[in-house]
Amino acid sequence: MARQNCSRERSFPGAFAVRLLLVSLLLVSLVAGSGHAAVGRSADAVEPTLETESDDAAVLELYPDPIRNGDAGEYVLVRLPEAGNWSLSDGDSTVPLRNRSGRVLITPDPEAISGNAGKGATVVEGSLALANTGETVVLRRNGEPVHRVRYTETTEGERYLPAVDEWRPRGLDPRPPIATGPANATAFLLPDSPDVPIETLRRADDRILLAGYSFTSKRVTEALLAAESRGVDVRVLVEAEPVNGASARQARLLDRLADAGVEVRVVGVGASRFAFHHPKYAVADGRALVLSENWKPSGVGGASSRGWGVRVENGSTADELAALFRNDSDAPDTRAWTAFRENRRFEPIPAANGSYPTQFPAEQVTARNVTLLTAPGNAESELIAAIDAAETRVDVLQPSLGREDNALVRATLRAAQRGVEVRILLSGAWYSAEENEALVAWLNDWADRNDAPLTARISEPDGRYEKIHAKGLLIDDDLAVVGSLNWNENSATRNRELALALHGPEPVAFYRESFAADWRGGSGAGRTWLFAAGAVAAVLVAVLVATRSLDFAAVEKWEE
Question: d(Cα 47, Cα 10) in Å, to the nearest integer?
Fold first, then answer.
């Protein structure tokens, strides 16, 4: 599966020293390149035609291009409201479905069907041979068409859902939001409280399930090795292909874990379910740890990023996270790290080593309810509903965000239009500064034109942290959202993301106090001198990209 703007190659073009030199120049200049690269897989070229003469009879799902040799396991799933003289045709052959009703799965290879495809369905062996280049499938009753579906070019390993006009990988079925009840929790910030994640792992006696995007923390590695040595069941799941590949440091640390007997798997092999496996969480016995930060020094190590985190103490949240971990780690698009890393090159990338004060110590809070949100599937719609229900205040903390083409941004603008006070605080990191300055100017101009109580600012860390990497949302005095969901289209619809919605005034009060402090340090004024300097930097970038001395995506996603 193609990953948009994200190469599957492991090597960085050109000498790494040249790239470091450019980074240094940009940092000195405090300017950015041209903004974040889109993180997502390419949209499939699909032009379906749906013609339905019945509200009930329908083609529900088509799977024309399985990963197996010879497309073994392809199928069509239909719904028949009642027994009758039904038939299904692909133009070349017809499968009779006389006296069938309910959900019926038609396949030439019943023995090759696996997973949930045939769950609750009657399986009928039929001689359909769906073309990977496109096909029209017609469901008929008494010879008359009742539902016609046309698809064009397929993507290997994905099935087509006509009702939503979407190709979706096998094994990726949206999960519902899961309420896990009231909970005591530890709310914390990074870089203020880097000991909370590490102590959570060190206290485990039974199990540690750690999931992330990237993994370069030596401290976390040592904690996992110590847990393994005392008999804890330790498992790790990370993204197979982070932007520009895993670093040499990550390879060394994952090698150490695997050599010690820790089960290390990577997500994103073959026909992937996700553009990226991007959540950051851990299950440690009955505790659930969810963060906005990666398992690396700049994140959980407290050496760079402003992040939000929470440790939930009720066992039901941990059990639901464990179920998510098992689902994602056991899927066909995962592979053992030891097999995946064979014959691969890994480039050295320096680790962050900053040091920052603790201004906001971790705090014990009580949540009236905790809801587990995941993407793709439910996180975006649930957050939109919560923003649409906001009455007084919405605070948004993001590295960057989309504009009006983003559903979460549109919901936030709607809230401001009906009088809800909205504050949006974005990162001032060098690689997104120019883009975010433009976003802030656009948002504040929109607020002026619409006479809406919305204000946007760029964060100014002032020695408290290096950059914002948190993905936080606060609504009124009753909802705090902590997790990995970036406010862009790809994150909500293409990535595996995870967030916890904490209901109750105590979690909101903790995060809002820190948000207010970060807000006071922010600036809503455009630093116009950045754009002149940015033009110079853009020329340098263009030259180095043209001469293949710089992998631009590596610069854009340096901190991921």
Answer: 34
Of 529, 510, 340, give the one whose Cα is nearest residue 434.
529
Q: Are 194 and 307 in contact (CB under 8 A)?
A: no
50 residue type, one letter: L
386 vs 141: CA distance, rounded Å: 44
Check: CB of residue 395 under 8 Å from CB of residue 473. yes
Looking at residue 397, its amino acid is L
Round to the nearest angstrom and report the end-to-end CA distance of the chain.
21
Say if residue 169 is exposed, middle or buried (CB neighbours under 10 Å; 0-12, 13-18, 19+).
buried
Torsion of CA 290, 296, 302, 306, to 10 degrees: -60
Q: In the 8-state DSSP scheme, what is residue 84?
A: S
- In angstroms, the CA 48 to CA 55 distance is 18
Residue with the two structure tokens 């993180």: 39
Phi-psi region for residue 181, left (φ > 0), alpha (ψ -120 to 50) or beta?
A: left
Q: For residues 112 and 71, is the Cβ–Cβ distance under 8 A?
A: no
Query: Of 551, 449, 508, 30, whose CA–CA distance to 244 is shortest?
Result: 551
Tens of each residue's pLDDT in the chain, 560 residues? 334 333 333 333 333 343 444 334 333 333 333 332 222 222 222 233 333 344 589 999 999 888 666 667 789 999 999 999 999 999 889 999 999 999 999 998 887 775 555 667 899 998 788 888 898 999 999 999 999 999 988 877 788 999 888 887 766 777 899 999 999 999 999 999 999 999 999 999 999 999 999 999 999 999 999 999 999 999 999 999 998 789 999 999 999 999 999 999 999 987 678 889 999 999 999 999 999 999 999 999 999 999 999 999 999 999 999 999 999 999 888 999 999 999 999 999 888 999 999 999 999 999 999 999 999 889 999 999 999 999 999 999 999 998 888 999 999 999 999 999 999 999 999 999 999 999 999 999 999 999 999 999 999 999 999 999 999 999 999 999 999 999 987 899 889 999 999 999 999 999 999 999 999 987 764 333 333 334 334 334 343 333 333 333 333 344 45
Burial of 43 per CB tally in 10 Å (0-12, 13-18, 19+)? exposed
Q: Which helix (H) or strand (E) holds 369?
A: strand 369-375
**Which structure tokens are listed for 329?**
């780690």
Sign of the dihedral through C-alpha 476, 478, 484, 485 = negative
The DSSP letter of residue 487 is B
Q: Where are the beta strands (DSSP E) in 174-291?
A: 178-179, 183-190, 207-211, 233-239, 263-267, 281-284, 287-291
Yes or no: say if 76 and 532 are a contact pair by the CB < 8 Å rule: no
